[in-house]
Write a structure and sequence with these properties.
mainly beta, Immunoglobulin-like, three-stranded antiparallel β-sheet, 8 strands, 3% helix
Length: 127
């Protein structure tokens, strides 16, 4: 019988990877590039990339998601974007134009068809 676990326990991060997953941290953890400080209500770019990583039908990044945990919001996170990627045609390097009004944390999730869901996060302050 399979032990039911909370979905969050199934998401890999550099801090929680263990066993065989440790060898996948560098190639599977999303990288978030965004300013440390932004102005409220002004657009800024967030780049999410993964890799280097294979891009074949047998082994590829199939999905990238971007969320924002907004400081003081009663229900978090806010889903900003979800992108499905087609193996061999689309590389996991995406840029999103984002607008926030309060400080918070960006979360990027990526799904590899062989190695599961991986998470990265970056704090963004509103000045």
């Amino acid at each position: 019988m399979v032990q039911a676990r909370k979905f969050g326990e199934l998401i890999y991060t550099p801090e929680t990877a263990s066993g065989e997953a440790i060898s996948k941290v560098e190639t599977h953890t999303p990288k978030i590039e965004a300013p440390d400080t932004v102005k409220a209500g002004e657009p800024f770019h967030v780049k999410v990339s993964v890799g280097p990583h294979p891009n074949t039908v047998q082994h590829s990044i199939r999905r990238v998601e971007l969320y924002f945990y907004e400081e003081g919001r009663p229900f978090n996170p806010v889903r900003i974007a979800v992108t499905e990627l087609e193996p061999e045609y689309a590389e996991p390097e995406l840029t999103f134009k984002v607008v926030v009004k309060k400080s918070g944390v960006l979360y990027a999730l990526e799904y590899c068809n062989l190695h599961g869901v991986w998470e990265a996060r970056k704090e963004v302050k509103v000045a």
